[in-house]
Design a protein that fits this description.
alpha/beta; Rossmann fold; seven-stranded mixed beta sheet; globular; binds S-adenosyl-L-homocysteine; binds 3,4-dihydroxybenzoic acid; binds magnesium ion
């Protein structure tokens, strides 16, 4: 199988199930014009995030890694009018682009962008006494083990933790890799596997964004 086939099938699926959406299209366009890297989830992965949040009945969501707000908008659309999504972004330029996109999406009442390195903003969020129904981890991969520790602190029985980019073109199985991204993901996966109060799996994904994967973890017992 080739990238060309994965992309063609992704387009087939997207044409069927993810109709063009002016707000999401404008989000990707404004992100590209502003020079943001194309690291957003794909349209059908965004739809998967929306479906998971809806199936879960999420009312509160934490996202680590906003970029231009593309995944934020997908997740925000799953929330009721009195829901809340906090999204963490280190790069002020990314946060500014995301803010405009979130306003255009009509989600600015629900979405709170916190600008700063996540390891600096997470303690503040914990100090506010918050917990979340769903946590989406999609920022700098070397920090994933730390993000998992925070996600466990900020969740409760019944919460869902989702992480992007856990396969990395298959590089994740190379235990000797000197890539800090791979090592971050490996430690994240190992810690999830060792966590007795969490039921986890990971799925490989192929499509327009290449070969990667999502980890999905359900908190089954009180912390
Ligand atoms: N979730 C987005 C993509 C996020 S890309 C989507 O699917 O649309 C990863 C983002 O994490 C980038 O915008 C990057 O600036 C941000 N990031 C990197 N290191 C970070 C850190 N330490 N804290 C918070 N955000 C960080
Ligand atoms: C990268 C980061 C992501 O979150 C992603 O989905 C794709 C690529 C990156 O840093 O290369
Ligand atoms: Mg990602």
């Amino acid at each position: 199988m080739t990238q060309e086939q994965w992309t063609a099938v992704d387009e087939y699926i997207t044409d069927l199930f993810v109709p063009p959406d002016p707000v999401l299209d404008a989000t990707l366009q404004s992100s590209a014009i502003a020079g943001l890297p194309p690291h957003n989830v794909s349209p059908n992965q965004g739809k998967l995030l929306l479906l998971l949040a809806q199936i879960h009945g999420a009312r509160t969501i934490l996202e680590i890694g906003t970029l231009g707000g593309y995944s934020t908008i997908w997740l925000g659309r799953a929330l009721p009018a009195d829901g809340c999504l906090i999204t963490l972004e280190a790069n002020p330029k990314h946060a500014e682009v995301a803010r405009a996109n979130i306003v255009r999406a009509g989600l600015d009442k629900i979405v709170d962008i916190r600008c700063g390195r996540a390891l600096d903003t997470l303690p503040q969020i914990a100090a506010e006494g918050r917990s979340f129904d769903l946590i989406f981890i999609d920022a700098d991969k070397p920090s994933n083990p730390d993000y998992l520790a925070w996600a466990l602190k900020l969740s409760r029985r019944g919460s869902l933790i989702i992480a992007d980019n856990v396969v990395r073109n298959g590089a994740v199985i190379d235990s000797t890799s000197d890539d800090p991204n791979v090592q971050g993901i490996r430690r994240f996966n190992e810690r999830l596997a060792a966590e007795k109060r969490v039921s986890t799996t990971a799925i490989q994904t192929v499509g327009s964004k290449g070969y990667d994967g999502f980890a999905i973890a359900f908190i089954t017992a009180d912390q």
